[in-house]
Amino acid sequence: MKNLKKLTILHSNDLHGDFLAEKVDEKLVGGVSRLSGYINKVRSEEKNVIYAIAGDMFRGSLIDSEFQGISTIQIMNLLAPDVVTLGNHEVDYGLAHLLFLEKCATFPIINANLHVKHNGVRLFNSHFIKEIDGMRVLFIGILTEAVLAKTKEEGLIGTLVDVEDAIQEVGKICDAYRDVDIDFTVLLTHIGFEEDKKLAAKLDPAWGVDIIIGGHSHTCLTEPCEVAGIPIVQAAIGTDQIGRFDIMVDTDNNCIDSYTWQCIPITEKNCPRDEALEELITQYKDYTDKKYGRVLTRFPRAYTHPQRNRESEIGDLIAESIHAQLGGDLVLLGSGSIRRPTLGPIVTLGAYKEILPFGDSLYSIKLSGAQLRHALQFMLREEAFLEGEHSEWYQLSKSVRCEYDRPTRTIVSLKINGEEVQDDKLYKVIMQSYHYLNIGDCLDLRREEIERNGKPIEVASNLPNVLEEYFASHPLIEYDDLPRLIIHE
Fold first, then answer.
1. Which residues pair with 184 in a beta bridge?
2. C-alpha to C-alpha distance for 315 and 178, rounded to whole angstroms
């Protein structure tokens, strides 16, 4: 007869400082108060409950950025996850500050791959073993260099390069605990849904990985994706929902006997409030509302940025605002740096800082027409169109008009200021420092080749400051409604 025990694993990913409930169709949805209320409810109803977060607690809200993550750690301490893995945005305030924030956390933060280059010493514990009802549950935290590009600015710090490296690291950790009775093994990853599937397909079954809980790609699922018998899940983005596994664990054979999984909406109907947590959030909100309530500008209506990998109204507007302020032939604005789906019609300083929280400097670089065409062709590669895909996408100033034929995967026409781009002509491009420093990964261009066109120049030290000045000096800003990307399906 099998020895079975029930294990309930709740999980979130990419919370991005999404602390406050929002009104959707006259109903309150999300917010960490009701998220905490649901977690506490399940903890009171079920015997063996674990709550895990698959990266990116930070960035995306004014409450987070104003206090550089300290507020988030305090809020997370009250939310009381059992284990958290690092996401790419955990390093946004610098690695030294991240190590400080870890000391403020009352929960374990794991990561198997951030290490000091010269001696290989890890900066965090690679794993965490949760002992619950006589079971030992092993969690392993995974990132890759493709996700954690920010660490390229830290000369002493290295990361796992790709999924192949991650597979080897998982194997080492699992092998190290062969003599320990591990009943259940969870990979807590922040590498994106497609990379999770590649990882699952190549894992050695002898290592005993049971499930993968992922993040980064903000993938919304209705059921787990099983690869090589391993269920892979994510819970979209923010606090509007939470993932829930109810698993019967075979503790004799250390594997899943059966399971169910669902994505639970966080709503007034099924999630009570956590009043203690709500009080803390209110204190932070009152402070930021007072400091950032000043009106910068207004729009005729609210503009939108519904998805990362498409041209958007907000993307067009911000790219053109940069262009108007700094000049150049065109602006390439990283679409992922826009962190909210709507802005306006009244634009306060706080709303603006929430939608564009990253304080990147801006570079002016020179690209030949051939390089520019290649970069946009790379951006428009087929995988970039996939829902939930996190490859870099760019919002463009209105000086650009690019026609792309998706069936043949070719750029039909590329014009700057109404003239067809010439391969041997140089064009002045304004882009964020992060995207220039990682231009090989982002746009498949080599920095040394770009620098032969002319020395890149830092034209502004802080993108939000540039736009704040532009918005404040334009009391009414209208979206120009000119398409930059025309995609023929």
1. 137
2. 51
β 157-158/115-116 pair status: antiparallel
Strands (E), 417-474: 419-420, 426-432, 457-460
114 near 138, Cβ under 8 Å?
no
Q: How far is CA 16 from CA 32, 66, 215, 268, 285, in A?
A: 11, 13, 12, 21, 16
Fold classification of 4-285 is Purple Acid Phosphatase; chain A, domain 2 (3.60.21)
Q: What is the CA radius of gyration of the chain?
A: 23
Helix (H, G, I), strand (E, B) or coil at 180: coil
Across 239-255, b (16+ Cβ under 10 Å) vs e yields bbbbbbbebebbbeebe
> Which are the contacts of 3, defined by CB distance < 8 A and separation ≥ 6?
250, 251, 252
pTM check: above 0.70: yes
Annotated domain spans of the chain: 4-285, 293-488
**Given the structure tokens 């014009």, which residue do they identify?**
415
* CATH top class, domain 293-488: alpha beta
pLDDT tens digits for range 336-377: 899 889 999 999 999 988 899 888 899 999 999 999 999 999
Cα 409 to Cα 65: distance, rounded to the nearest angstrom: 40
3-state SS class at 295: strand
